[in-house]
Structure formats: C-alpha cells, structure tokens
Amino acid sequence: MMEKRIPILPFALLPLWVILYMALQPGVDYFVDKLLSLSQGTALTEALRFFLFETPKVLLLLTLVVFGVGIIRTFFAPERTRQILGNKPLLAGNVLASLLGIVTPFCSCSAVPLFIGFVEAGVPLGVTFSFLVAAPMINEVAVVLLFGLFGWKTALLYMGTGLLIAISAGYIIGRLRVERFVEEWVHEIKSGPGMSEDRPTWSDRIKSGMEAVRDIILKVWPYIIAGIAVGAFIHGWVPQDFMAGIMGKSQWWSVPLAVVIGVPLYSNAAGIIPIVQALLEKGASLGTSLAFMMSVIGLSLPETIILRKVLKLPLIFIFIGVVALGIVIVGYIFNAVY
Q1: Are 251 and 81 in contact (CB under 8 A)?
Q2: Whole-angstrom Cα distance, residue 130 to residue 98?
Q3: 6: helix, coil or strand?
C-alpha cells in the first residue's frame, strides 16, 4: 500500500514564519512610536511595548517547536514507552522517564492520569515520579519560552537542572521503598499486554504535528496573554527597588520563601515565565525567580488533590518535600553563579 502524500503546507509556511518573526521588533516600535505617538520611557509606553512584542513572539516560537515535538512524539507509542520504562534498572528508568517528560506537553494536573497509568502498568514508583516532575517543569513550552525570553544558555541550564531534580527526586523516592503508601486499588489494577500498534506514516506524523499545534496553542494562549499582561504591568509600574528587596541575592531567605509562595499557586509555563521575565528586569535574582517558577509549574495544590486519589498523605508529603528541596538547592546555585 502506497504511503499517503506528505502535506507540504506546514513547510511552505516556514518562510512566512521567518518574515513575521524578524519583523516583530521594528513593527511594534513603529506602531507604538509613530502610529500611537506615545512618549518614550513612560510606564504605559514600555508596558504596551512589552505586551505587543512578547505576545506574538511567544506564540510564533511555540507554534514552530510544538509542531516539531508533535512529530517526535509519534515515535513514542504509549505501550512501547511503558514497556521500556518498566524493564529498566531504577536509575536508567528515572533518566528515561525524565527525558520522556520533556516531549510530553502536560501541566502538573494533566500529567497525573498518565502517571497513574504507569503505576497501574507496573512501572517502578520512583520512575513514575521522575516523569511526574519532568512533564510540567521542563516540557517544550517551558524550554521555548525561556529560550525566547532569556537565551539558549538559560534555557539549557534550566533544562539541565530540571532534569537533575526529576531524576534525583524519582531515584530517592524509589530507594525509600514507599510502595505501601500507594492506594490499594492501584495495585489491584494492572494493565495487560498492549495491542500491536501500526507504524505511522510520515504523512501521519506531520498531521500529528499540526494537531499538536492546534490543541496546545488553543489550550495555552489564554495563559500566555494573561502572563504577559501581568509581566507588562510589572515591567511598567512595579518599582525596581521593591522587587530587588524581596527577591534579590542578598536575602538568604528569598529562595525558600519563593518556593513556599509558589507551591500553592497553579499555572503553567506559558503563564508564569513572562512574569518571571518582568521580575528579573525589575531586579529580582535569577535563582530566586527560577525557584519560584519551578515551584509554580512543577508543584501545585490542584496536582496534590488529584494525587490524593492514588497516593496516601505520607507519600504526597515526601514527594513535595523532595522536589521542593531540589528546587531550593537549584535556586541557591543559580544565585551563586549569576
């Protein structure tokens, strides 16, 4: 049977993407300075410039990368992934599960059902926790936003430290032998061997990439706009000395305080990273800001409520404590280096 014709429209649109991306800064400057004739340097002008530039920039970057990751994801069938994770030694499984989390665009809450599926399938508990940490914290949305706003070095360092937290947290939990704190009904439900899955054609893979763009962008665009709007307000009106006093390097308590504040909140990378950018521009330290961001998107109150259906309270507290400790350590490391 002949393979379906490969759709060429996504690739034909690539030159248009490049033109739009290159024209963003001069286009926004012309609109704000010439058409609106706003005074330069005022809070309103700079906040508006921030919002008008960052919103399309983030959406363009996400569209391109989500399309590529959507194609990559077609090479990881769910049953095959579970078999791979279930047959690996603990540390190797932690590494693989964490890497899988990077190409899985879930917030902390939507990652929980897949986490439960891994537990039901017999994947080691520590391995499943590595996935649960990595999926929301270092998915492609977070990496793309960090790259677009801060550059490749910060994005790479964040991805590396996020992976280290996910691998370490899962490994520690696995070594603690805390399976007794998983609800009994989970152990009673074990997934049987999966059905053989047809290998997708390249036409199917590209279609999957296009569907990923549609699904993910439609889900996150409100968070993007809301986050950038808050960031624009901070950028324009919040005094620099105020933020530096709360989230600066000199205050030893700023990192743990940022984590404590971030854990009860709920957002995703699309909503919180533009806010972090504005905080940094106002004098907040990088380590404290990243610790706050990691705690918001990697740990959340809704996530713990969902986890309570499958985990007993001692294990939930262990999970939050181990991950929060890792985030605090990363925050101090970034503050020391930068």
Answers
A1: no
A2: 5
A3: coil
